[in-house]
UniProtKB/TrEMBL annotation:
Keyword terms: DNA damage, DNA recombination, DNA repair, Endonuclease, Exonuclease, Hydrolase, Nuclease, Nucleus
Annotated GO biological process: DNA recombination; double-strand break repair via nonhomologous end joining; interstrand cross-link repair
Protein name: Protein artemis
Family: Belongs to the DNA repair metallo-beta-lactamase (DRMBL) family.
Gene: LOC101500618
GO cellular component: nucleus
DNA sequence: GCGATCAGGT
DNA sequence: CACACCTGATCGC
């Protein structure tokens, strides 16, 4: 959304007001400590966390948007030189701490920018946000455009609420009473998962020192620690979480306890780095429709198929479980959202993605614009997108539950093949067994690296570092001896 | 030396 | 298949 007036999660110069929906790095590309193109509007939590990511950021540029409030900005109209006003209302998007949804009203009409969001039907915060949005929309003629978090804008994405997924993680931990557990997380997000685990199992959760600082800034309960002796459950950075790490942890027994990994992820198709003769024969994208029973690691039985029709935990490595814990709305929630807002037009907001799901394909019938969406229109839109730098526009395969046979039949025509690498992988020359052996060699090399206590091993040992009794106030985050990773 | 960008990885 | 984000290389300033 750029018209010389405002930018949302975009940081090039040329706008008069900038909005940051949340602090994940795919939304801060172009933002830096030295950025100064204009005032930056964000939530109070984002403002609090921003200096961690951008230490020398000019804080006088920040403008706080409180949840549930409206602000009126006086800006210069880019076309004429007259003044124009933009009114912005802020809602909790329930994606990660500090994340917001923005409703803009101005000469350009009414535009709702969802940002990344998850509004679950069973979530109290989402319910409040929903009601606030409904109320805000009552004095409007309707929303002209919704910029939608279209990450899962396809009916194949049918995963449970976060609390249900968290319970699945808890069941996995409970069924491994003698194991250490590591959970892969990023620098922001999944805090509620950790809180639910800690509360139900009445245990503390280990986090790395920088993450503890974030937890403290967020004012979360005092259940996080940097002392490995206080708990068997550790949340570790996703980048240090892999089959290699788990294999290493389980190789050096009995020095350490046997360890399982839990990967909280909305991506149901996460595949492990495949080696021959191991558990899974196909990707999760296909296997989840086979109603296959999740295989349990180490022959420990896990009873977990309660959520019929919803994504269940998966084992994709001897020691790693995946639970469908997502901070993006699933298809059903997106559908409810569109039914509530009934926009005239709908656009997807994908940042770093090779897989763009056209939201109008499934939600077009819920919009109030020209109905129904014509095949040719969508086709044209895809073509436009592709020449317009969004690399590909793909409607993933779906089950045959679509009620609109006509659309379903012509689905193939919406697929736009991605150029470059993707094309190369389907070309006949590269599908030979020669490539397989290269792949195997690469895996061998990786395994060797671990065993030779190379880079990965050092990173792993950093994770195990004990910080006995450390509280965040005691920590010196800039002590190079305490930094994670190779020095 | 720093920031921006890209490639390659989990 | 890629939620988000890491490291490392390179390049321009």
């Amino acid at each position: 959304m750029e018209n010389g007036l405002i930018s949302v999660d975009r940081w090039e110069s040329g706008s008069q007001a900038y909005f940051l929906t949340h602090l994940h790095s795919d939304h801060t590309q172009g933002l830096s400590s030295s950025w100064s193109h204009g005032p930056l509007f964000c939530s109070s939590i984002t403002a609090k966390l921003l200096p961690i990511k951008f230490p020398r950021f000019d804080l006088s540029l920040l403008r706080i948007l409180h949840i549930g409030t409206s602000h009126t900005l006086s800006l210069r109209s880019p076309s004429s030189s007259s003044t124009t006003t933009v009114r912005v209302t802020t809602f909790d998007s329930c994606h990660c701490p500090g994340s917001i949804m923005l409703l803009f009203r101005g000469d350009f009409g009414t535009v709702l920018y969802t940002g990344d969001f998850r509004w679950e039907s069973n979530c109290e915060k989402a319910k409040i946000a929903k009601e606030a949005l409904s109320a805000a929309l009552q004095d409007d003629d309707g929303v002209d455009v919704v910029y939608l978090d279209n990450t899962y804008a396809n009916p194949t994405y049918d995963f449970p609420s976060r609390s249900v997924a968290a319970q699945q993680a808890i069941d996995i931990i409970s069924s491994h009473p003698e194991h250490d557990v590591i959970i892969g997380i990023n620098t922001l997000g999944k805090e509620d998962l950790l809180l639910q685990i800690a509360s139900v199992l009445d245990i503390m959760i280990w986090v790395w020192p920088e993450r503890l600082q974030t937890m403290d800034l967020l004012g979360l309960p005092d259940i996080f620690t940097t002392d490995t002796t206080l708990t068997r459950v550790r949340a570790v950075p996703l980048y240090s979480f892999g089959a290699d790490t788990l294999e290493a942890l389980n190789l050096i027994r009995p020095t350490t306890r046997p360890t399982i990994g839990i990967l909280p992820s909305g991506l149901p198709w996460i595949k492990k780095s495949l080696k021959k003769g191991e558990f899974l024969s196909g990707s999760f994208l296909t296997s989840r429709y086979k109603r296959s029973r999740p295989q349990s690691a180490n022959n420990v039985e896990v009873h977990m198929d309660k959520q019929i029709g919803k994504t269940s935990p998966k084992v994709f490595h001897q020691h790693i479980y995946s639970v469908p814990y997502s901070d993006h709305s699933n298809f059903e929630e997106l559908e409810d959202f569109i039914k509530l807002v009934k926009p005239t037009d709908l656009k997807g907001i994908v940042s770093i993605s090779t897989c763009f799901i056209e939201p109008m394909y499934y939600f077009g019938r819920l919009c109030t614009g020209n109905q129904p969406v014509q095949v040719q229109q969508l086709h044209d839109r895809f073509k436009m997108k592709e020449t317009d730098e969004i690399k590909g526009a793909v409607c993933p395969e779906t089950s045959s539950e679509d009620d609109d046979v006509e659309l379903n039949r012509s689905k193939e025509s919406y697929k736009v093949k991605e150029s470059g690498k993707r094309v190369a992988t389907v070309s006949p020359e590269t599908s030979s067994s020669e490539e397989d052996s290269v792949e195997l060699d690469r895996n061998k090399m990786k395994a060797l690296k671990v065993k030779l206590s190379g880079f990965r091993m050092r990173r792993f040992s950093a994770l195990r570092r004990t910080r006995r009794g450390a509280k965040s106030s005691d920590l010196d985050y800039f002590d190079p001896d305490e930094q994670m990773g190779p020095s």
